[in-house]
């Protein structure tokens, strides 16, 4: 049987699938050509990340499709319920990228509190002519230790983020409609560990209490952070979104950054991908990455092998 990994798959994933008797195709097929390619090549499994969309039109056009797989957590680029109604298995890898995304959250947090995203732009331009001026501009850094991190969505990635925060000596609070309480185990290199319990609180109280806020929620119908939410946050709050574009009102965010209400933002995802708004791209108070939360070698290896094991167990 043939597997089309249209958005790529790790070498370890390919090897595992080939060992299970599958032929893996890694040709990048244009969105509008996916259905034709699947049918012409008798593809049984389509694997995607976030670029390729598998909607009703592709599902209807490909009667031989047996599995649709998403390398990652969110499946908003797949018509999941419709696929299942047609007898197609839909799989994903919810646990594989948690640590990678959590580390990126803290890359943005560290960047924001020490202005690295801005100093890395300006040092090459002015470092030799305005060293003292830049030193003064970036002198008011903030320590994360002792501050309160508000985690919106305390699922797998939220918990992985909480573990790093606890290791840094931060207070962690959380808001989650579906998880009232969770025990977070922080493990150390020598086998020792500590476990602490985090009780979910209201979103409103989290916004009021947190020094920094990180979002770990699926795509929403509306904004989680808009003008009203920003208004009740602490002055000088830092906000990070490595979850999904569209959960923050970017117009309201830019306004809050310009006014100083929000000290900085870290964005890995955007309302308009892959063409973020210029007002976001040019804002010197925003640390930006191009949707790379799960893009580490370790995460991609885990994603590839986990997808392979699920496919083999279903079709093997």
UniProtKB/TrEMBL annotation:
The keyword NAD applies. Keywords: NAD, Oxidoreductase. It comes from the Bacteria. SUPFAM superfamilies: Formate/glycerate dehydrogenase catalytic domain-like (SSF52283), NAD(P)-binding Rossmann-fold domains (SSF51735). Residues 107-293 form the D-isomer specific 2-hydroxyacid dehydrogenase NAD-binding domain. Residues 8-314 form the D-isomer specific 2-hydroxyacid dehydrogenase catalytic domain. It holds the Pfam family 2-Hacid_dh. Belongs to the D-isomer specific 2-hydroxyacid dehydrogenase family. This is D-2-hydroxyacid dehydrogenase.
